[in-house]
Amino acid sequence: MLNGYAQHLNVGIGWFVQFSLFFITLYVLLRLLFKPRNRWRVHLKDWRLRSAPRWWLKLWRVHEDSIHLQERRVLLAGCGLPIVSELYVAYRRCGMFILFVVGLVIYYLTKHHVIAPFTAWNIELVLITLFMMGWCDRALLHTFRRYRTDRIRKELVIVSKQLLYYVGSRLSLHGKLMKCVTLTHYIRNELNLLLNEWYHDADQALLRFRDRLGTDEAYAFAEQLRSLQWSESEAIYDLLREVVHEFKARTEIAKDSRKETTSYLLFVLAGIPILYMFQIFLYPWVQEASKLFDALNP
To answer: What sections of the protein cross the membrane (predicted)?
Structure first.
């Protein structure tokens, strides 16, 4: 019995280590892939985002007017990922098909004793995890988009408050924004690009800043900056104060939503020990009582 328990414990520890290494590797790859780029890469954005060949899109049934494609386009923009939506959908479907075929091949090799069952189960577990991530990509993108939107909203509130602090100052709007860079972290790269491109063409710089962030809050903030660029009147600053209050209200709503989601998750996790207790302590008694009643009532 102890040997079986030790064997199961070793298997569990092995799976835990493999999952930990997998997610750490995935996190490092994503950080390296989507880290802030240099300014010259922004100017090559159109070159990097060239569209896919038509035959490739037709092969994976990617249609320009499909709701699925439009939804992924909005989600990718909200996540700040510089990926063409057509390519994303095509490669997602291609990847899921390859994972399915590889899973069938692993099953065939295991059935003919070419691969050890333990190794095959580990490979199948990784394949199923990747397949489910591709299948549930919409939920994953929504989650990352909400996280990113919350971070951007918080920093836009900080920048807006700092701009309100400089009401009546002789500094230009560019100078005020320069003093706000040190207060940001998540949007510092986009804000630096905005300031670098400001005197070349302020309107186009604001449009690029808005598109790089890709959130509703960024659109509203860019419009306020555009208004302040033309006139730093008290009415414009009053509108900025209203925007700050609206951002704060959205932040509180998002915080309450996260608390509610966490409460539901903790409620579900609290039920797991109860089920385990039923399986270990109560289920044997129920099984013995059932045998006793069966014996009394032949």
So the answer is: 12-34, 90-109, 115-136, 264-286
